[in-house]
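Technical appendix A lists one of the benchmark inputs used to test multi-chain prediction within the project. The record comprises two sequence entries:
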Amino acid sequence: MNLLRAFDRNLARGEAALATLVLLSLVVVASVQAALWNLANGGALWASDALQALSWGDAFLEKATLWVAMFGASLATFHGKHIGIDVLQRVAAPKQRAFMRGVSSVFAGVTCLLFARVVLSALLAKSARIPAEYGVFDADFNTVHICLGTAEAIADAGYTRPDLFCGLRSFLEALGLTVNTPERAMDLLMPALFLVIGVRFVAYGIGAFGRIGTGGITEGEGEHPGDETSAGEGA
Amino acid sequence: MDVFVLLALLALALLGVPLLAIFAAAAMLLFAQLEDTSITGAAADIFSEKFAESPLLVTIPLFTFAGYLMAESGTPQRLVRVSRAFFGWLPGGLAIVCLLASAFFTTFTGGSGITIVAIGGLLYPALLQDRYDERFSLGLVTSSGSLGLLFPPSLPIVLFAVVAGIDVVRLFAAGILPGFVSVLAIAAYAFVVGVRSPELTTQRFEAKEAFAAFRETIWELLLPVALIALLVTGKLRIHEAAAFTALYVLVIEVFVYRDVSFRKDLPRIVSESMTLVGAILAILATAIGFTGFLIQDQLPMKILELMSESIDSPIEFLLVLNVFLLLVGMLMDVFSAIVVVVPLILPIARSFGIDDYHLGIVFLLNLEIGYMTPPVGLNLFIASFRFDKPVTTLYRAVLPYIGLLVVALLVVTYIPSLSTSFVDLIAGEEDAAPLAEPPPAGTDAPVEEAPGGGLDDLEDLLDEGGELGGGVDALEEELDAPGAEGELDLDALERELGGEGDEGALDLDALERELAGDAPESPEGASADEATTDEGAFDLDALERELEAAE
């Protein structure tokens, strides 16, 4: 049990560290984009070139936002800060509160696990088509993914094989997950973190049931024994 | 959905099940009962412009981060000092200081609970020390906690714009006058109390202190001014403005004021702020499927039909809406309320001729009041916790403030020009200004249609179709279909495509390849709803009309 708790805490630390890194990158990339945009509009040619070199910026902002949001959602589960109408829990006695928290957490956990599966299916369905810039012809003039095309076909199409992505794609395919663009591969973090959220909720729910016999949960106490949730945060 | 299931979900919500799980469960249950649509529909819109691909989404973590940084730094103390130096001499001066500092602070923090803890925590003891009545003071710090929600760059405004799909800068502009009306309503009350209570201590105006306080706070005071100026003049697009705000606050708090340590404090602040962002966006992600289903099921139209039996005018509609939203504001936090209620009421409000921006402001002002409305307004519990008072004491304390804000709400509701005049001003300026250069993809800046837009659109759709497959497939289906409604004039298309120097030059190879049937087959398991909501689908009739016009 202690091992699981330690794992959970370390996972939360890792998520917080990644969230920090991604958020600061977001700030920097969006700020640089803004500065270059204004300089380019002012006539600075070098800024236009730099802006072109930063053409991945918009896609990065989109994916980074999703990542930050999902790391945040997972951290919200860890800290017991998800938004809910917890009026009854506020006025309940400690043992009743432990029961209510147990029921609500287990329900939330099972729902999130199912939702993770649904999100994954939606993502894979969305990702199944091969975009033009990732498609080449095979010998029978059928379109195949660039990662599966011959060197000749790739050269004929005027493309370069994205080796790093192809490696990742092969790895994911071995897990039964076929994604055809790096962007969609990055989206996989969403179902993965819904899975983490679901597991966390179920574990905390079981923990809450366990505390019915030991005096229950006092008002303001967080998901982890001894933690306090502070008013205002999460409001 | 069975009434029983609905009631069970409601009961679970009251029991404390996080709303993200309630919405996810509701969406999955609704889609699971459909025969022709897969359950995947519950999450199909997550990876669309409604959520993950929304250009506005990035502003939410950035503004929230900036707000949390300010909350963790010495900003509350500096704001109180400068407000006190300038307004402390007025009758009811300290109360007015509380209002102004809270409004400014909430503007950046969005979550009004933080304002009660940060500003209220500082000013409540000071109010008592200056002999303000305890009930008056408690009501003031509690109600001030949500006052800044209508001023830019408040997070609920951004979220409303994301969900409603409207221009956020215009919504910022729409909130300014109504925001002042609500602040003035309470400031006037504080002033009257000050005039009627000579025993209250006031502070003499001292130019030296005012100057020192102003100089100390200058960096923070500059921020909203710079932000509005940069947005209105078009120097920054909204997501860049959010990045500018985050970077600016980071630099001033870490390097200028040195209130926040980059190593010690920053990871904790990011973690706390992203926890709130995650909680909000998780609800948004799970509620999209739920609200999408309700809209697809024509629920807003059904409500509208029901309403139109007894409601004839926009005024009556707004009155009913106000009552409904006050109830919503009491029961739900502002973020969940926006995510769930906005998609449902927006079409109804439009059918009554209500302006989107006016609706947005009325909506947010209602929720602002709902925040502190007994018996379950969130701010009441936060204030009760923070000031260690029974929540029933808070109920009595906030009543006068609720009354005043309801008056302000009625004024804002029935004088739409308060919300729309600045919006019209911005719209007028934008219409008059020539567009220097088309903005890059993924931004919310207005895009002027290029000449020959029809073919450009087609090419865009084919490009999109490359990824999503819909555009080209739709074209292919149309061409295959015998007697298709939109019979295409292929000669005209050919002439257009062969036209020299055509601005809308098309990638003929891609088209040829797709028409030759080389497109990959539809993925197994792709649901019918995905096909119908395909982003790449386009209107062949429109294409033909474009071609005719070109000829």
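Chain B touches chain A through 100 residues (CB under 8 Å). The first helix of chain B runs from residue 3 to 15. Comparable benchmark entries are summarised in Table A2.
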